[in-house]
Amino acid sequence: MDPTEKSVQKTHRARHSGPKADKKKSKNKHEQDLTARQRNPKAFAIQSVNKAAKAFRRTADIKTKKQHIPKVDRTPVEPPPIVVAIVGPPKVGKSTLLRCLVKNFTKQKITDIRGPVTVVAGKNRRITFIECNNDINCMIDVGKIADLALLMVDAKQGFEMEIFEFFNICQATGFPRCMGVLNHLDMYKDGKTVRKRKKHLKNRFEVELYKGARLFYLSMLVNGEYLPNEVHNLCRFISVMKIVPLTWRASHPYIFADRMEDITNPEDIRQNPKCDRTVSLYGYVRGTHMKTKSMVHIAGCGDYIMKNMTFLPDPCPTPTMEKRRSLNVKERVIYAPMSGVGGIVYDKDAVYIDIGTKTGPEQEKPSGMVAALMESLKPVDEKVRESQISIFKGGPAISGEDFERKRHDEHSDEEGDEEEEDEGDRDSVMEAESSEDDDTETEEAGGPVKKKRKILKDSEDEESDSNSENNTMDVEVDDDNVGTSDQDDDNDEESMLKWKKDLFQKAAVKHRARINYTKMVYGEEVADEAAEEEEDSNDELGGLFKVLKKASGDGSRVDKHAVNMKDCNHLDCDDVVDLDQLGEDIKDTFVTGKWDASEDAKARLDEDDALYGDFEDLETGEKHVANEAEKDDKSDDDSSEKGKDDYGQDLDQEDEESEGKVKTKAEMSAQERRLAKKRKIKELFDKEYDSKGDDQFYETWKAEMDEQAKLNRSEFEELPEDQRVQYEGFRPGMYVRVEFEQMPCELIENFDATYPIILGGMTNVEEKLGFVNVRVKKHRWYNKILKSRNPLILSLGWRRFQTIPYYYKLEDNMRQRMLKYTPEHMHCNAVFWGPITPQGTGFLAVESVAEKTPNFRIAATGVVLELDQSVEVEKKLKLVGHPKKVFKKSAFIENMFTSALEVAKFQGARIQTVSGLRGQVKKALSSPAGAFRATFEDKIRISDTVFLKAWVKVEIPRFIMPVTSLLLSQESKQAWLGMRTVGQLRHERGIPVPQKGDSLYRPIVRPQRENKPLVIPKDLKMRLPFKDMPKELQEPKQPKRVAVVLEPAEAKVANFMKRVKAIYKDKRQKEHHMMRKRVQEHKKKVASQEAVKQEKLKEAKKRLHKILGDMKKKKESASHR
Amino acid sequence: MRLLMSTLSGKSVKISQIRPEDDDPGLTDFEVSFIRLLDKVTNGTKTVITETGTQLVYRPGLLCGGSIEHDCQNSRPIGYYLEMLMCLAPFTKEPLRAVLRGVTCDKDDPSVDLLKLSVFPVLKRFLGTDEGLDLKINKRGAAPDGGGEVIFSCPCRQKLRPLKFTQPGKIKRIRGVAWSVRVSPGFVNRLVDSARGVLNKFLTDIYIYTDHMKGGQAGKSPGFGLTLVAETTEGSFLGAEQVSSAKGSGEEPTVPEDLGKKAAISLLQEIYRGGCVDSTSQGLSCLLMVLGQQDVSKVQMGELTPYSIQFLRHIRDFFQVVFNIKVDKKPLAAAAGNDDTDEEEELKTGGDKLILTCVGVGYSNVSKAIR
């Protein structure tokens, strides 16, 4: 900032001689040895445009990949303990690990651990450990709440099904952190196999999770415990682990109950052991703010409305922040009420005492007390106020409720003692209390009550506004006016209306009398239940619908407005207004009016000067003076408001500072001033330039979110705890007690601490049921495909329930076509009747939680897409009919419908025959019910079958059954049986699958076909072209030969002639042969002669050419010469 | 209003004892009409009304939105229906496009103009953008017989944004709409003149649009009115209006000059009440703050109207959300001159301003589909 400081710094001077310079020189080679590229790399930065573009794109990609959608950081200031679950197959060493971990954190040895254990792990980290057993219900529930899962793996066995199942469970719930712990490495003898095994398992683990997933090794057991340094290492990892915020958990409050008490009246239980119980559950609120009296889902039990919710002092507090590295022994608190360990806990029902290192749950009373005194960590007197004197653990409080009530009564008596005298019972006390609160009217229209109310109000007004007497008078007058006018105008009117008018009136006079607005709006807040109910019923009259009026004769139009006014949002203005006064009052709300200090242009300018006014001031030389004046103003004005004072002080300080600066400023030279100016401009430019580009949007978005997070944290910070709870709900990190009524007795009777009890909070809409559309995929390791209509157990949101899904496919025309089975390797959609859950929530499905199978149990996973109250899933329907009578192009079709009404519904529908002839339904016939006339594009045959292809909506059964695994007895905990499939039922009862005879396959018998000859009509044949005319090829008529019987003489002659002919023939043949021979010889002779002749000719030609050549030569030589 | 909350929170309501001792007991026609409208907007709603009409059981379904048409009863203007619809519209499955027919402006409910001018900016702040947010007045219909038609369209959102709006700023301009149907077109000008007469003292940037509708667009009965809205530098809108008395209502006929003056005065009163949201949209802004994410929302308002108070109570009953209501400190005037020491005092910004703070319930729109 300061220019003088910067200039003081010495610049670096490189050595040019000496050993250092030599060393440097030897590093750098001779300049001339280097290539041009090495000498001046910058010049070669961009060789190819494409490459550069690619590189740029890559960097941009990497940059964008790093960005996440900014979310409001909702982690509380003091977060609840993180939940660390230890998961694994049986006999892998989970309990031992848990013991070792607890021992490492608390230095206490606890042998019998049941249920969750909360320990303090560090200065700002607490951990709740749970061990997850092998039940799939348990694994699902744990997967929903665990922040970190330790997956125990037996090195000898490798990864077992449980681990893989848990991975998938985690995936469906948003994937909390997972860490592997490899155990039983001492089963291997030599180091090499151990190393190989480790490597193999680690690779597999990384495949399953992510590259670089952490896998711990526990090498051996010593005295039934793992090596301390290995456990210590693991603990350190756990306590510094960053927890990922998961969407579902960040938007839903939940409590992982670490303690449960049955506070039913013991007498009721004695009379009826199966009576509904009143139960209080304890735990830290996690996730987000939890509201009292909201509905929660207890996983494995059902939906319940909280009767009561109170916050308690933290049983396992994080130690106060001091500058120390480690915790001392006292701060290493452990809290595990289900295992019988924990600090002293006071609450309504019982007192709990930490029994320190003692492990046995049973403890003598006196020593317990002593221990209590010794080990108490907090000032006891604080807690005693809230506590009662009952010491039995788990047992009902001796007189807790009674005592409580009595105390409460006394408390309330103090508040409203004057009313108490009039009305004895408790309700009336509360009522009086409520009426005391400023303005809530109870509906009693009697005179005395009203009067009392008025008095009360007046008195309160006086209280609140003691400094200005006049104002109080005004209020009184106003109130009276209202009261009397009300009474005069319509006595019959309900008090509600009056009260309303009263309110309105008050609102009008508010600027004079200070009224507590919160009380005005939520006046009945403090009132008793009963009073509230009455108030509610009153609301009903006045809320949506207007106040009832007793039969008043005139039903005129004017009345309408008065009546309607109750539900309308229109504010009538009073007609009589002093316009000038009004104008004066609102003068400053216009731009033309005065601006407030922070916004006033002049003030802003001054402020600006204070910030960067190093130079501008000097030009005017004024600022100094102005500030002084302002300072004077401030000091003169003895304002009563605190904020003002603060402001004034701030300014004073500022002034002093600036004064100091001004001195230096005056001494600055022109050069320095210029420098300063330049620097400022550069700063501005840098700021603008850096924030430009694609980052800007992201950055502003992020900043917005951060701001919101800051606001969320700071808004209610300074309020007292009970008020804060009222506005925000119970924020995460608070230890609360939740009371439930009418819980099933099985919850208590079959309570097992190893099963987690989760109170999952829900938003308003999630209590409802509806049709849930999901995208689902059968798990690739599940060895069956899933069938529509088969019941399936889903884990969705907090719930586990059985329902009947229908699978469907979204076709290209957006038709939801039902599928009978899920595709084998593809996503499909499904719809089922279930709880409304926000879109994007993951779920997983199992077919049964009861059966013990070595196979993979998770059937499918998916995500919620859409919620609705009706379904659009359709399946194909083919209606089949037969022609009854066929005309030219129309036909009567029967058997397709059963009544004329049905036909009427399908009029105009497209039909077709098997052969593909298309047609249309026309009109119903009268005679056989359901028959109709149809037209086709051609004449159909009587033997044809006619189809009508239609789509019919599928009715989804509204079946949902929560998996109540918590309520089952110990032995049947893992055997929850819900609805069975039809197949299962058939199998159990030995009923064969019914089959339609029609659907069975039979050998196809085809009769031999006889073709009739083609007959072409005569006239057509006549007209055919010749080539197409069927030709009847007749055999040419041959003369009939007659056998000739010769006379002997004739025969003799004939014989002679025959012989002569034969001889003649033979003679001719010989002659022919001879001739051929001759001809060949002659040809040879001629050829040889010819050859000689040719030879001679060739010779002659040769000679001739020679002569010619010679002559030419001669001629040429002659010419040359 | 409770039905509205019920629809949003998914809780069933049973309203009994509806005017049992009235001349005309039970639900009125406009209430039944409103229930019909709810039925059109939602899917799977079940409503059971007893024979006498004095008891109503309402089981809400999911909001589906889409295109709907509704003939509103003439006994209440469209504003009554539209106000409720505006609360529901951000949470529908598909963007809502509603055609409402009936009386556009009447004395007892905010008119469509007022809703458009003053409530829309508030709605816009929650939605983040005003893309697709529109109210088109096709026809105007004055009080007794109606005949008006408006088209309301609103986009739907998965989640609303939290609102932080505590600096109302200064009023920089005044706009308005003067409308008349089936009366002389000169009426609107008379309205504008008289209103400007009052307002010009405060601000010069005043522009009042005149909207005289004729023929088929003019509805069935005569009437005129003036809606004024003041816009501040920070983008908050304060609106007020006045409407002429209906034909056959038994009241004396309204003079345009009086009406204009009255409207101007009611605007001044609204400014007196002040705040970042005006009295008409107090309820809506409170509701949408509650239905936001689990973040703190803060808004400054003027005096709470009885309607808003009732609204806040319903919010408490249905969503268990309690508002923190504090009186805002009045801004201080700046030191104008160096010598004038008495200048340091509260600005004259009218009535007390309240800051309402609440934490959203983390409401998300469950009906909108994701793909």
Question: Helices and strands in order, then pairings?
Answer:
The complex is a heterodimer of chains A (1121) and B (371).
Chain A: H1 3-8, H2 19-27, H3 36-39, H4 49-66, E1 82-87, H5 94-106, E2 117-122, E3 125-131, H6 136-145, E4 148-154, H7 161-173, E5 177-183, H8 191-208, E6 215-217, E7 221-222, E8 225-226, H9 228-240, H10 247-251, E9 254-262, H11 266-271, E10 277-286, E11 295-298, E12 302-305, E13 308-312, E14 334-335, E15 345-346, E16 351-352, H12 365-375, H13 380-384, H14 400-415, H15 417-422, H16 426-436, H17 447-464, H18 469-489, H19 495-509, H20 517-521, H21 529-542, H22 557-564, H23 579-585, H24 601-612, H25 616-620, H26 623-636, H27 642-667, H28 670-690, H29 695-714, H30 721-728, E17 735-743, H31 745-749, E18 757-761, E19 769-778, E20 792-796, E21 799-803, E22 806-810, E23 816-819, E24 827-835, E25 842-846, E26 858-868, E27 873-886, E28 890-894, H32 900-905, E29 910-913, E30 918-924, E31 932-936, E32 946-953, E33 960-962, H33 982-989, H34 1018-1023, H35 1048-1120
Parallel strand pairs in A: 1-3, 1-4, 4-5, 5-6, 23-27
Antiparallel strand pairs in A: 2-3, 2-14, 7-8, 9-10, 9-18, 10-17, 11-12, 11-18, 13-17, 15-16, 19-24, 19-26, 20-21, 20-25, 21-33, 22-23, 22-24, 25-26, 27-28, 27-32, 28-31, 29-30, 29-32, 30-31
Chain B: H1 2-9, E1 13-15, H2 29-41, E2 42-43, E3 46-49, E4 56-59, E5 62-63, E6 65-71, H3 78-88, E7 94-102, H4 112-127, E8 134-139, E9 148-154, E10 164-165, E11 171-181, H5 186-199, E12 206-213, E13 223-232, E14 237-243, H6 256-273, H7 282-290, E15 296-301, H8 306-319, E16 324-327, E17 354-359
Parallel strand pairs in B: 6-7, 10-15, 11-12
Antiparallel strand pairs in B: 1-4, 2-5, 3-4, 7-9, 8-9, 11-13, 13-14, 15-17, 16-17
Helix pairs in contact in B: 1-8, 4-7, 5-6, 7-8
GO molecular function (chain B): RNA endonuclease activity
Protein name (chain B): RNA 3'-terminal phosphate cyclase-like protein
Family (chain B): Belongs to the RNA 3'-terminal cyclase family. Type 2 subfamily.
